[in-house]
Amino acid sequence: MSGNAQKKLYIKTWGCQMNVYDSRRMADILAPLGYRESDSPEDADMVILNTCHIREKATDKVFSDLGRLNKHKQKKEKRGEKMLIAVAGCVAQAEGDVIMERAQYVDMVFGPQTYHELPEMIIRATGERVVNTDFAVESKFDSLPQEHVPQGVTAFLSIQEGCDKFCTFCVVPYTRGAEYSRPVQQIIDEARRLRDSGAKEITLLGQNVNAYHGMAPNGRTMGLAELIAAVAEVEGVERIRYMTSHPRDMDQDLIDAHGNIPKLMPFLHLPVQHGADEILKQMNRKHTADDYRDIILRLKKIRPDINLSSDFIVGFPGETDRHFEELMQLVRDIGFGTSYSFKYSPRPGTPAANMQNIVPEKIKDDRLQTLQNLLFSQHREINETFVGKAVEVLTDGKGNRPSQLHGRTSHNQAIHVTCDPALLGQIVTAKVTSASATALTGEII
Ligand code: 5AD
Ligand code: SF4
Questions:
Q1: What is the CATH number of the domain that holds 275?
Q2: What is the value of pTM for the model shown?
Q3: pLDDT over 80 (residue 143)
Q4: Residue 419, marked binder
Q5: Please, which residues have CB within 8 angstroms of residue 312's CB and are 6 or more apart in sequence?
Q6: Does residue 266 lie within any of the structural domains?
Q7: Residues 70 and 172 in one domain
Q8: Are residues 174 and 289 in the same domain?
Q9: Which ligand number lies closest to the CA of residue 177?
């Protein structure tokens, strides 16, 4: 294959926004080698499965995808052509050897901290099977090329990676490694380039984004609140969001930023995971339910209309009916506009996987249902309070109907707005006409 010939690249992404960002950056790295993204794996010269290991079944899904891919690969090989199959992301990091053994046709396995080495790995993969699950000594961010593939009006920007918190249920500290914050200047430069390629909204990403402590140009360390203020200085960036945060790192500066920085949107995803102190302790969350309530109180003092989101886990080992009721009470006390809730699933290698008093699947199912009923009714009620009001919407795609555009409100609600399709990519003001638990509809004013 010559270096300049057009080659087809197919990337499939599972899991969090961080993986979505990583997939974009892999496409950026491969663009100079002649790889262009296509939306189907058939015929691709290279396929990357960017995987997630956070909950069960992810590995099974990867293997069933691999099986299908192998058929395409065989067909290509019959025609004398090659298809490189790569497994990337957190399953690759955690189970690289298993994948290599079970799927002999996989050419490359590499973890989230190594993808800047993709060009070399591809060269090596022509002669041997490549496994790369190192945690690089120097940061991959220093060797990533500039963005080649525009992200559109809403863009992700990874500012922090890894986690030092070690919640007992979570694989992230093992798959993504230790906390690392990118230097401020690198982030501002990337924000400017994203703006130049059309981004109006930037979401700052990190597994523990509010633990951000990056080096400022003057050698000082900057926290997330200051970084947001610096990104807000980038003209043309109209909206800033950040995710995912940890309650422990929700300092007063960051809370105040929600009052001081108009570009910082009134939305916060702040996972609490549980509402019972005994469970929080077993989870090694390092905060109590009341700590969480207190953060939310202080936030609402600064920004009363802030739209809150959280992650919840039911059925953690040792969870009793009383614990579950404490979780329900926390949810009732706070009120969430959107949320993600999961049944606990033991992850190999994490401390919780060895804990006693496993909760039966049936009870997990029932509790999840009960929790979600409460949460979904809150989502609907909160969305309904917007009916009749004017909201600012950044339109980012086609709507349900040809006369509509899809977009996001400042409060991060999905909305379908009846308006001229030529307004795609603009911030428009719309009047909300109806609301459900998951989205709003409205018309342009
Ligand atoms: N089981 C269930 N949910 C989990 N999460 C992380 N690990 C597990 C697990 N082992 C959830 C947490 C986290 C979200 C990204 O996934 O709620 O915040
Ligand atoms: Fe996982 Fe806890 Fe770190 Fe979040 S804070 S990534 S849940 S260990």
A1: 3.80.30.20
A2: 0.92
A3: no
A4: no
A5: 271, 272, 273, 274, 327, 331, 339, 340, 341, 342, 371, 375
A6: yes
A7: no
A8: yes
A9: 2
User: Residues with beta carbon inside 6 Å of ligand 2?
Assistant: 163, 165-167, 170, 172-173, 207-208, 246
Please check whether residues 415 and 367 belong to one and the same domain: no
| 293 & 338 share domain | yes
Indicate the residue among 383, 411, 430 that finishes a domain.
383
Query: Bridge-partner residues for 36, per DSSP?
Result: 8
CA–CA dist 282, 274 (Å, integer)? 11
pLDDT in tens, 410-420: 999 999 999 99
> Distance between CA atoms of 24 and 156, rounded to whole angstroms?
9
Start-to-end CA span in the chain (Å): 55
167 is in an annotated binding site: yes
Has 16 been labeled as part of a binding site?
Answer: yes
User: Can you list the alpha helix ranges (DSSP code H) found in 252-337?
Assistant: 252-260, 277-282, 289-302, 321-334
**What's the mean pLDDT in 186-204?**
96
Q: Of 331, 351, 383, which residue sits at a domain end?
A: 383
Nearest ligand to the C-alpha of residue 248? 2
Q: Give the closest residue to 62 by CA, choosing from 45, 87, 37.
A: 87
Two tokens at 306?
Answer: 């802030």
Same domain, 15 and 151: no
208 SS3 class: coil
Give residue 424's domain range.
389-444
Is 139 within the bounds of a domain? no
- Strand runs labelled E in 315-438: 338-343, 390-398, 404-409, 414-418, 427-435
Quick one: pLDDT band at residue 137, thresholds 50, 70, 90? low
For range 270-289, the mean pLDDT: 98
Cα–Cα distance for residue pair 120/405, rounded to 1 Å: 42
Rounded to the nearest angstrom, the distance between the alpha carbon of 56 and the centre of ligand 1 is 10
Give me ligand 1 centre to Cα 223, in Å. 26
Statement to judge: residues 368 and 405 lie in one domain: no
